[in-house]
Design a protein that fits this description.
single chain, alpha/beta, ABC transporter transmembrane region fold, Rossmann fold, 2 domains, six-stranded mixed beta sheet, four-stranded antiparallel beta sheet, 21 helices, 12 strands
Length: 580
């Protein structure tokens, strides 16, 4: 937690003044039993109603001032805790966005969501309690013991016996329940994972009628977390009975031995009442301390999870220095003896890949499922770094580019057509914030989306639901292609991004891209032979290795893998057609 304490420096006034106000309230609270004793020993004993009313007014004044101090401290605590939570959440989100795909894959989306929400909320609570109670509770407990000793040293020995017993009970309960809190946080991650999978995959679950099994899976995870919470609850349930039993025995002892000392004229009745009040204050303060231990233990577990994210550096370090200049006459894209494996000990997804793509070429990339097609194109915008070898764009290693410069050159259309909530225009302007209506219309036309966009009731201002839930798969794919085209990239990568389109729309899309994007280098990843057969160059991948490079006609003659793919999808006559 100390690593995250740096956020408190932005709220020095609240962190200093808040506890001071709370300390003032505690001082007034310690004075109240003395005023009560005075009312009993003087006002009630002498039947002096005027004195009782005057001292009652003092009690009201002490209460009002204490309330004012408490509210002021609460205000400072709220400002500081919410401020720290906001800054921490923003920094955590910014850091997560700086991580590469590899780190995000390693953590997993559900746990990152839990850390940025639940864990940060727990740290907010810890900051609020730090300001409100960390100083007040121990001061109240110690102050009550000192005030009791000042009233009567011998009778205060009961406090010195009862207090360690209460502390012992608190330690017994807390030491056994604290380890469970870390376990509970991990089990909450599992619940979040199952919840996310079910909400995202609700259509698949219903299509296969798996609702009951998924409900059972969620119930099992929930019951597992509930069982752990019940164990903690049972331990915590011992806290109040044991502490109150010790306190009540101490009060009985105070009244018993205090009565004897009253009979002997050493103490007054009012002072006995003050002793009882101080005993109650000690118990309540120690219970607060126990709750603080729970809160800060949870916060410590959450802080370690948040720090784990902060301490994880991206395996794709940002290039130092400013923009780089392309090499004159260099290929647009070049891969030199590239090897890539997911994870340090994973099998190679790509092996010995050499590829050269000239500016303005349209290149098709085809291969069976798992052959490394998406992996290859993900190396170009540096979503991952090659394990071995070099990836160059315009003759410059992608590692030397600032991310912003490299990715401005590239329009990426991934396999999963992801849209954000907002208007259609908001989504299209992701590639170029300053895109004009005409530029958006042109991109939509090239992407073959004009037919359905023109029929939308609000046109480009039509709201898009989260994930594009109000659009079909084919509509989403065409809009993601249009989004990439709005940025006028030098390189357009279509990663199996027309899989939801019918063959006629797919063909029209390819013709439109070839006709209206002159000079743009286009990479089309597909499992459809019809999509890539008219490309300037076709790269055939087989189990992570390049099985062949050439035109459709050349590969039909020289590459057995490509020939098998074509003949499995097309008639022999269609496969042998080489025309454009």
């Amino acid at each position: 937690m100390w690593k995250l304490a740096r956020y408190l420096k932005y709220f020095k006034k609240q962190v200093i003044l808040g506890p001071l106000f709370k300390l003032t309230e505690a001082v007034f609270e310690l004075i109240v039993p003395l005023v009560m004793a005075s009312i009993i020993d003087v006002g009630v004993k002498n039947q002096d109603m005027g004195y009782v009313l005057r001292m009652g007014g003092v009690l009201l004044l002490l209460g009002a001032v204490g309330l004012g101090c408490a509210l002021t401290c609460q205000y400072f605590a709220a400002r500081a805790s919410q401020g720290v939570g906001t800054m921490l959440r923003n920094d955590l989100f910014r850091h997560i966005n700086s991580l590469s795909h590899a780190e995000i894959d390693r953590f997993g989306t559900p746990t990152l969501i839990t850390r940025i929400t639940n864990d940060v909320n727990q740290l907010q609570l810890a900051v609020a309690m730090l300001i409100r109670l960390v100083i007040r509770a121990p001061f109240l407990a110690i102050g009550a013991i000192i005030m009791a000793m000042m009233l009567d040293l011998k009778l205060s020995l009961i406090f010195l016996v009862a207090t360690p017993l209460i502390v012992g009970v608190l330690y017994f309960v807390m030491s056994r329940s604290i380890p469970f809190f870390r376990t509970i946080q991990k089990k909450l991650d599992k619940i979040a994972l199952i919840t996310r999978e079910n909400l995202e995959g609700v259509r698949v679950i219903r299509a296969f009628s798996r609702q009951k099994s998924e409900e059972k899976r969620f119930e099992d995870a929930s019951e597992d977390q509930t069982h752990t919470s019940i164990v903690v609850g049972r331990l915590s349930a011992l806290l109040n009975p044991l502490t109150y039993a010790i306190m009540n025995f101490a009060i009985v002892a105070i009244i018993w031995y205090g009565g004897i000392r009253v009979d002997n004229g050493i103490l007054t009745q009012g002072e006995i009442i003050a002793f009882v009040n101080y005993m109650t204050q000690i118990l309540l303060a120690l219970v607060v301390v126990a709750n603080l231990v729970v809160i800060f233990t949870k916060a410590s577990a959450c802080a370690s999870r948040v720090n784990e994210v902060f301490e994880t550096a991206s395996c794709l370090p940002q290039a130092e220095g400013g923009p780089v200049s392309p090499a004159a006459g260099a290929p647009k894209i070049q891969l030199r003896n590239v090897r890539f494996a997911y994870g340090a000990t994973g099998d190679a997804a790509l092996e010995h890949v050499d590829l050269t793509i000239r500016p303005g070429e349209t290149v098709g990339i085809i291969g069976s499922t798992g052959s490394g097609k998406s992996t290859l194109v993900n190396l170009i915008p540096r979503l991952y770094d090659a394990t071995q070898g070099e990836v160059l764009v315009d003759g410059v290693n992608v590692k030397e580019y600032p991310f912003s410069q490299l990715r401005r050159k590239i329009g990426m259309v991934p396999q999963n057509a992801a849209l954000i909530s907002g208007t259609l225009a908001d989504n299209l302007r992701w590639g170029n914030r300053d895109a004009t209506d005409e530029e958006m219309r042109q991109a939509v036309s090239i992407a073959q989306a004009e037919d359905f966009v023109s029929k939308l009731p609000q046109g480009y201002e039509t709201p898009i639901l989260q994930g594009g839930k109000n659009l079909s798969g084919g509509q989403k794919q065409r809009l993601t292609i249009a989004r990439a085209l709005v940025g006028s990239p030098e390189i357009l990568i279509l990663d199996d991004s027309a899989s939801a389109l019918d063959f006629a729309t797919d063909a029209a899309l390819r013709r439109s891209i070839k006709r209206d994007t002159a000079g743009m280098t286009v990479l089309m990843v597909s499992q459809r032979a019809s999509t890539v057969k008219r490309a300037d160059k076709i790269v055939v991948l087989d189990d992570g290795a390049v099985a062949g490079i050439g035109t459709h006609a050349q590969l039909m003659e020289s590459c057995q893998v490509y020939r098998e793919i074509c003949l499995s999808q097309l008639s022999e006559q269609e496969a042998m057609e080489h025309g454009n």
